[in-house]
Write a structure and sequence with these properties.
Number of strands: 7
CATH architecture: Roll
Structural class: alpha+beta
Strand content: 35-45%
CATH class: Alpha Beta
Amino acid sequence: MRIQTGLRLTAMMVIFFAGSGFAEQDDRVAILALMDQAFNAVSSGNPDDWRAIQLAEGTSLSFRPDPNGKSGELELRISTNEALLAGEADDDHKVVERWTGDPTVMIHGPIAVVWGKYDYWIDGAFSHCGIDSADLVMVDGDWKIANWMWTVEKDNCPTNPSAPKTQ
C-alpha cells in the first residue's frame, strides 16, 4: 500500500512540475512575442501600436549621454508611458531595433522581467546600442509592458561598424 501511495505521489509531482515547466515555456514564448511587438511599434511610429501592449500608467526611463557633452555623465529621462507617446512625433525615418543576443526572461506568476542587449538603426545606418529592460505584468490573460528602461550607448557596441574588431 505504501508503495502505491508513493508511486501516486511521485506521479502527481512529476505531472505538476512538468506542467509548470510547460506553462513557463509558453509564457516565455508569449513574452518574447510581446517584445517583438514592441520592436515593431518602434519601427511603426504609431502610438496605438504601443497602447495595445503597454500600461499607460507605467513608466519609461532612459539613460543617455549628457546632451551638454560632459564626458561620462548620463542624462536620465523619466516619463509615464502615455506621456511619452503623447510627445512622440511621427516622422518618415525607418527605424529598426533588435536584440543582439538571447534576452534573459524571468517569470514568476503574473510578473516577468526581460533584459537584453539591443542595437538601433535609423534609415539603415547604425545609431546606437544599449540594454533594454522591461517589467511585464499579466492583465486579463495577456502580458503587458508595465515599465521600460533602456540605455543609449554609442561606444563598445557589438554591431557598430566603426567599432574596433575584437577576436
